[in-house]
Amino acid sequence: QWQLAESGGGLVQPGGSLRLSCAASGVALDYYAIGWFRQAPGKEREKVSCISRSGDSTDYVDSVKGRFTISRDNAKKLVYLEMNSLKPEDTAVYYCAADIMGLCPLRAINFWGKGTLVTVSS
Predict the structure, then answer these.
(1) Dihedral-angle region of residue 12 (phi above 0 means left; psi in -120 to 50 means alpha; beta otherwise)
(2) What gap in Å lies between CA 74 and CA 86, rounded to an integer?
(3) Which of 101, 79, 113, 80 has the alpha carbon at shortest distance from 31?
(4) Could you say which of 6, 16, 30, 66 has the lowest number of CB atoms within 10 Å?
């Protein structure tokens, strides 16, 4: 069974940093473009960032530009979201998603992870 799994979430103070990871089981993650999405309480899920299959194309929502960095290590079959200068409004469940088309922005979602909670609070 193909699955995505996020890790690295937690509680951090405003201005702090976290690095989220997205790993796959049963699927070759390096074949897919990967997107990070988030859903805050009472809000719709929004796209945060994406990276193409090759890693040469990335995209970010305006609210995280300059603070978040997406990267991938295809040898390790991992995708990362480095989050710096975190703000309370970044509090959300963060999900990774995979698109077999391999392009960023994503065209469609083939797989979702179950999410990891990021809480930014003092």
Answers:
(1) beta
(2) 27
(3) 101
(4) 66
Q: Pull the structure tokens for residue 95.
A: 């999900």
Which residue type, as a one-letter code, is found at position 11?
L
> How many Å apart are CA 6 and CA 62, to the nearest integer?
23
Max Cα distance, the chain (Å): 40
Alpha-carbon span 113 to 24, nearest angstrom: 9
Cα distance between residue 63 and residue 83, in whole Å:
12
Q: How far apart are CA 34 and CA 95, in angstroms?
A: 10
What would the two tokens of residue 41 be? 């309480």
* pLDDT tens by residue, 66-117: 999 999 998 898 999 999 999 999 999 999 999 999 999 999 999 999 999 9
CA dihedral 35→40→43→49, nearest 10 degrees, is -20
